[in-house]
Amino acid sequence: MNQKIIDFYENKHSVGRNNLTFDQVTKLPDARLEQCHDYIQWLFPLPEQSRFMRDAPILDRETARRLSSGYSLRVSEAIQTMMRFWKIDLRLGEDGPATIKMGQYWMQPEDHNHFRISRVIRFLTLLAEDRAKPVLYSDCAERILEVMVKANEEKPFATDTTVKFWKKAAQAGWDDYRSYKGRLVVRQVNPADWPYPPEPEL
After folding, report:
1. Collapsing DSSP states into helix, strand and coil, what is residue 37?
2. pLDDT 10s digits, 19-44
3. How far is CA 11 from CA 5, 40, 58, in A?
4. Which terminus of the chain, N or C, has fewer Cβ atoms within 10 Å?
């Protein structure tokens, strides 16, 4: 288990160059959420090493089980922090599609927020695999993916590669990823076919 992730979620560990705790991160104004690049890896850790932040935590299955079963309120708070930032109206635990404000500044090709979105979707997909009642996390990942794809169809802002990456993030579980020369590929898929654009925050 990665105790540092648990400590961060319990507000016992500060991260990044600004030494922010979980509560401080979730209370950051939108401008700071945009400017800071070393908190997203702690709010939504992944089992793959970050290429941007080498000391970012690595999520393992035991830690994922702890987060999904014992820290659901904190995970929900992390989700809502980013939903607020991206102007996505997603009511956790309620039925109905999410909605998003169109015309935001990050709705342009290859904006770094597109890769943050991939990270959030993948994190939630992994938590859904390791919980007795995974509906909250899987439903949340699917609704974020759905609202982003629909927004992009209405007024294109993401590349085809980015959209493919979002969709793969929602499908690939713990056993579907392996390391390939520092990049992520889906098992049994030719690495040349795996879309992986330059990504500063994954």
Report:
1. coil
2. 999 999 999 999 999 999 999 999 99
3. 10, 15, 18
4. N
